[in-house]
Amino acid sequence: MSDIPLHSLGRKGKTRAGYVPLNDAQDTDMPTGVLRAAAARSVNLTLKGKGKQRERYTDADEFDEEATLLGNRDSTLEEVEEGNAGEQSKRPPRRSSGQRSSSIHKTQDKSRTIPFRPAEKIQSKFPPNLVRNQKYNIFTFFPIVIYEQFKYFFNLYFLLVALSQFVPALKIGFIVTYVAPLAFVLCVTMGKEAYDDYKRNLRDREANSQKYLILVPSSDSGPHTRSVPSSSLKVGDLVVLEKNQRVPADMVLLRTSDASGTCFIRTDQLDGETDWKLRVAVPATQKLADDRELLDLDAEVYADAPIKDIHTFIGTFTIHMPRAHSVDDVPMVQVPTVEPLSAENVLWSNTVLAAGSAVGFIVYTGSETRAVMNTSHPETKVGLLDLEINRLAKILCAVTFALSLGLVALNGFRGQWYIYVFRFLILFSSIIPISLRVNLDMGKTVYAQQIMNDSEIPGTIVRTSTLPEELGRIEYLLSDKTGTLTQNEMEMKKLHMGTMSYGFDSMDEVAHQLASAFGADQAHARNNSIATGAQLAMRGRRDMSSRLRDVVLSLALCHNVTPVTNDDGTLTYQASSPDEVAIVKWTESVGLTLVFRDRTRMELQTPTGARLTYDILDIFPFTSESKRMGIVVRDAHSGEVLFLQKGADVVMARIVQRNDWLEEETGNMAREGLRTLVVARKRLTSQQYAAFKTAHHAASIRLDGRGEAMISVVAEHLEHDLELLGLTGVEDKLQDEVKGTLELLRNGGIKIWMLTGDKIETARCIAISTKLVARNQYIHEVAKLKTSDQVRDELEFLQSKLDCCLVIDGESLQLCLNLYKNEFIEITTKLSAVVACRCSPTQKADVARLIRYHTKKRVCCIGDGGNDVSMIQAADVGVGIVGKEGKQASLAADFSVTQFSYLTKLLMWHGRNSYRRSAKLAQFVIHRGLIISIMQAVFSAIFYFAPIALYQGWLMVGYATIYTMAPVFSLVLDRDVNEDLALIYPELYKELTKGRALSFKTFFQWLMISVYQGAAIMIMSLLLFETEFLNIVSISFTALVINELIMVALEITTWHIYMVISEVVTLFFYVISIAFLPEYFDLDFVVSTRFAWKVAVIVAVSALPLYLIKLIRSRVAPAASSKLL
């Protein structure tokens, strides 16, 4: 890099140092990395107010904005500018540091230039390196939780009713009956929130206290490292990382323990991919003798402002050389060494160093790291059922108000009528029962326990106990691919060579043939007395084994895999792609083992134990554009030069010689869901290779269009007329029962989207192998869209073909969302399946939010890596899988499972039961409150509209608790179908998503039932009562309790032993309690037959018609589930 000409920025003429200005015409003469950074700086120097973009710090107090790529020290700049006194006037005057720093804050430009060993003042400008996932702190906890609770109309109404009891004129009954239930609900909720946040705090503290070594200047020859917790790391620190250590902040890689300056990292928590990624150290620092020399370096790192994109980084690394003098003593400015930095020179936080050790220079900390920027803060999730009940509560409140006003109006607004209105409101407050919240919350706890205790889905944890009903309403499932649908374990399953095909079960034949070819198996060498036909057969067999030898040898050489010996002596393979590791493992299994590799040489061990050595001359790595990977090797023994290439069939088909089988066989393997690679070879003469090398070198030193020139040289000299050796099929192993699970969910009316960070080809294969795409379904690929016209054309096509599966890459997805968000979501939500590839974590979360917002349907997201956390938190229901990628997703999720296939039981069975039970329970509790309020209204209307309570004190307390609570709550054990039917007929799930179990229709049905029963019981009691008022209370209350017990029995579909016990025990308690409440019950009258027959008649009038209606309906219009029983 040091030989690239660098020009002073912002000068008009030549300076004494002889540098010419950088103008547009020269833009193309610089490599793009330097150019981009330099261009950004030149703009900032011109604008003189962008501040941080190119700051040079000379000391802690002074920022020098006017330093350039050349700038060494202020004194040097002054020397250069001696001849520029005339031009100095053209520039804006220098500002004081105070002015300058204020402009920095104004513009909020977050790019930075950090010198080595920066001063404390510079470091303190950047955010601390803290991990913080807590929702609350000690001051915000109480206000936020109270707000979250009282923003619901339901709770606010109860609070007002409870407060009204402290006003003497409005007091009715015991204050405790109004305050206690609300206090109980609030205490339970606050306790749960506090506990959850405490656990989050513990996890944060653990992450923040992890120790890391940083390099520090040391006067003696002793240790030059110091151990500090992760939270104390600052921008500009030099951190030493060991194998398997998590990277604590975003840092530029300066040195690695590998002499080549490379290291592998695991990025599974960032992008979800478990294959290792190669990172390259800055060459200038890798050359240093040891880590200590970094402390003496006069260098600086420029980094662009922090952004979310984990695939992009723009920066430069500058080493300032000592000033040099020419022979004639003219002072010169030595050009500092500037090296461009890209994403491959950077270790993002939350990635893990996979091998060796490394030293990094921190550029972003805390909230500015890519990992934190790609994580959204969790919001409190509220179930749809809770929102629906909140809506019904508003209707009930209107009913209460109308009833109160109606009774006062019928009385002619006499006296202090407004006080009467309030007293009636409080009398009728049981219409909106506080016990509804208590019952529903207890129900949710029961469902959570049932889920966690289910022996068929072991290890399942309910982390958000407020959402089990949501599992019964899911219409969109957004799934990650790697580790969720697949195990990310590759295995080579097929090798096809045109005339021969080897499946997984015939690999021992391959090993045998290979051994023959390498001369290990000499059994076929017989004497000459063999018949001619047999000799011919042998020759054919030898020809077959030599072809097999060629293809296996090519597969063993054409890759980017490095064998690494572990501490225990075992060998593991490192590569950036699991496909390559699978192929190299396969060549090892058939007898050809990769034993050594560095950047220039590769060694293989043959089945006979001999070593084959090959020199690596050139490597052309795989890119998503080229879709192929090539290598030029020379046999160290024979000197033969080979060009080997493997890649996707679409690009290899035009590179290899004509053949009649490749296209057909590729199609066959793709239909099986295998990932296919075409392997080809070309022998090169030394003249051919020399010609290629000359042309390639000439292209590689061009300054403009370098990449394109190099590609065209490879295409011209190497990539034509290759000998087609074979076709490999690699299987990405699926998780257990994925195909059956996806099919079941689709039959249940759930639309499935797959969002992955992987390549289009891979995602397409998995979509086919998981049966996400039906057998003959058309797959429409959308990639590399650049203009709005292209987007519009694609959307128009999709509109006309809604039965296809869409496969789209992240770039095109972003363009579609930016330009035609509404149209895109509207069309894609109608498709049966969508696969989005190369998705960033934020894009996944955005898609989830958009589907929720546009369709108003329930969305479930499932994933297993740190990159899925944002998506899981953005969904209505987030499911995390405890997998190879760690527990990050499962800890952030609402439900944690150990396998994808558990989703069927979770949704089809537990989701179904939770939703139907809660819907039934909610409506019954509302009915229980309504019926007693209707009786109160009838009573008041008959007794001159007086706001006097019909039932007071213990009767009201008992009605909401001991007399009805157990039977009503036992509805949480009801079920309409058995487990097997729910899983055999997933179509039953479609019924639930329509939300018919709790709707305005069912609500008004219950409202009419309550009005009929309340009026019937009260009017019949008044008709049948004798001389005493006390008798009305005893007759009507007894009829009411028995009526409720019968209604519960009518609602039950499948009886459970607890239901029977609760009914019998409640009735028993009621009978016993009569003896202890003489102020409400005349015992002589209660034990008489008159009392018994009157109660029987009243109950028959209120309950019998409903039983008959239910019987007729079950015959005329039975429920879908009852048809299967």
Automatic annotation (TrEMBL):
Lipid biosynthesis keyword on record: no
Q: Which residues bind Mg(2+)?
A: 480, 482, 864, 868
GO biological process terms, semicolon-separated: endocytosis; phospholipid translocation; retrograde vesicle-mediated transport, Golgi to endoplasmic reticulum
The superkingdom of the source organism is: Eukaryota
Catalytic activity from the UniProt record: a 1,2-diacyl-sn-glycero-3-phosphoethanolamine(out) + ATP + H2O = a 1,2-diacyl-sn-glycero-3-phosphoethanolamine(in) + ADP + phosphate + H(+); ATP + H2O + phospholipidSide 1 = ADP + phosphate + phospholipidSide 2
* InterPro entries hit by this protein: ATPase_P-typ_cyto_dom_N (IPR023299), ATPase_P-typ_P_site (IPR018303), ATPase_P-typ_TM_dom_sf (IPR023298), ATPase_P-typ_transduc_dom_A_sf (IPR008250), ATPase_P-type_domA (IPR059000), HAD-like_sf (IPR036412), HAD_sf (IPR023214), P-type_ATPase_IV (IPR006539)
UniProt cofactor(s):
Mg(2+)
Against CDD domains, the record matches this protein to:
P-type_ATPase_APLT_Neo1-like (cd07541)
The record's principal subcellular location, in a coarse class, is: membrane
Database matches in Gene3D superfamilies: Calcium-transporting ATPase, cytoplasmic domain N (3.40.1110.10), Calcium-transporting ATPase, cytoplasmic transduction domain A (2.70.150.10), HAD superfamily/HAD-like (3.40.50.1000)
Instruction: List the residue ranges of the region (Disordered).
Output: 1-31, 71-112
Q: Is Translocase among the key words of this record?
A: yes
Give me the residues that bind ATP, please: 480-482, 580, 622, 646, 675, 756-758, 838, 844, 867-868
Query: What is the main EC category here?
Result: translocase
Domain (P-type ATPase N-terminal) spans: 120-172
Q: Which GO terms describe its cellular component?
A: endosome membrane; plasma membrane; trans-Golgi network
What the entry lists under Pfam families is as follows: Cation_ATPase (PF13246), E1-E2_ATPase (PF00122), PhoLip_ATPase_C (PF16212), PhoLip_ATPase_N (PF16209)
- Provide the active-site residues from the annotation: 480 (4-aspartylphosphate intermediate)
Q: Where is the P-type ATPase C-terminal domain?
A: 891-1118
**Residue ranges annotated for the P-type ATPase A domain, each copy included:** 225-369
Regions crossing the membrane: 175-195, 392-411, 417-436, 925-945, 951-973, 1003-1023, 1029-1050, 1057-1076, 1091-1109
In the UniProt record, the signal sequence range is none
Record key words, sorted: ATP-binding, Lipid transport, Magnesium, Membrane, Metal-binding, Nucleotide-binding, Translocase, Transmembrane, Transmembrane helix, Transport
UniProt lists the family membership as follows: Belongs to the cation transport ATPase (P-type) (TC 3.A.3) family. Type IV subfamily.
**Name of the molecule in the record:** Phospholipid-transporting ATPase
Source organism per UniProt: Suillus placidus
